[in-house]
Amino acid sequence: MSPDERRRPVVTGMGVVAPNGVGTDAFWKATLEGVSALDQVTREGCGHLPLRIAGEVRGFDAESLVEERFLVQTDRFSHFGMAAADLALADARITAGAHEEEPFSVGVVTAAGSGGGEFGQRELQRLWGQGSTYVGPYQSIAWFYAASTGQISIRGGFKGPCGVVCSDEAGGLDAIAHAAAAVRRGTDTVVTGSAEAPLAPYSIVCQLGYRELSTAQEPERAYRPFTANACGFVPAEGGAMVVVEDEDAARRRGAPVRAVVAGHAATFTGASRWEESREGLAHAIRGALRQARCAPDEIDVVFADALGLVEADRAEALALADALGPHGTRVPVTAPKTGIGRAYCGAPVLDVAAAVLAMEHGLVPPTPHVHDDVCHDIALVTGTARPAELRTALVLSRGLMGSNAALVLRRAD
Fold first, then answer.
1. Residue 275 CB partners (closer than 8 Å, separation 6+)
2. What is the pTM of this model?
3. Which residues form the Ketosynthase family 3 (KS3) domain (predicted)?
4. Which run of H or E residues covers position 147?
5. Which helix (H) or strand (E) holds 17?
6. pLDDT tens track for 363-393
7. How far apart, in whole angstroms, are the C-alpha atoms of residue 21 and residue 235?
8. C-alpha to C-alpha distance for 359 and 370, rounded to whole angstroms
């Protein structure tokens, strides 16, 4: 057995900042009950834009969660990321300063798709409206995709392998895979995940070019994947962070082992080529199963990408059938994100958090806003949560620019 095979990456902590709740308890309760957080966009400066419905994180008190000196240096997406990282570390029973003697044993890997749009817009308005002397020095770093990774590592004193993944929405799963690979190579602990804040005016304008974006006016009709009335996806802010550790190291310090990161694979099929995503996603699923040494019929639940475009949803359903065989039409499939929106790179990490919680509680959460009109050959869970013996979960993600990823999680022993 190689050194890589002897080190098994596990999830020991999770932190969530989502439109339906801050913290895993609030998030899970709302997810399990199928509560929808989709509503009218209320962010300042967005009222005249055609995007009407989104998943906003409301009641988030950044001042009470992040130190002032970091608040002024960073954008809202980093505030979410830092708060979620703190929650994940506390959940993993890692206290502040715990790694001062071994700072290189902890790394940070995040994924980002939109960066710090709100901070960047504000500073550019100052540039053009008042002049260059009014632009703050942190403009050079706060908008940058790597800002969350940098700030989380600085705040925690973490000097192990650090990085940022910019690979579309699927980057959320790819970041967790990078963390797992770092653990297999010898790093004890990696804080990983993604949080996004794409609801500032500049950021929304950038998204309006996506034909997949839903501009529906009513929350209950705006995001309904796998139905004949699917009209695109609803964007959201927020995300989740998880702590991935070497299992032996985690058990030595008495940390809770919540799930095993068993397998991952990623492919690329091109921007908006949804029919081609069938083959790419199926290939990623097979690769993740192979790495996890998992048979198709061992998958107990699928957390779907659920883009909300008819051709994309059809391609996903067919990819499940291609990769899982007949089991792909029978295995329970869910898409809790229809109640909170797609937080870009943060979306699949929220699905990972939901998958871990689902395995712990033996419940498959429902798909909000979708009822009995599923028009693709999948066993979509709607209405209410479904009890089930869940040992292995498959989480899927696709990006608007063509990335596909699959992640296999196993319930902790």
1. 311, 315
2. 0.96
3. 6-411
4. helix 147-156
5. strand 9-18
6. 999 999 998 778 778 999 999 999 999 999 9
7. 16
8. 23
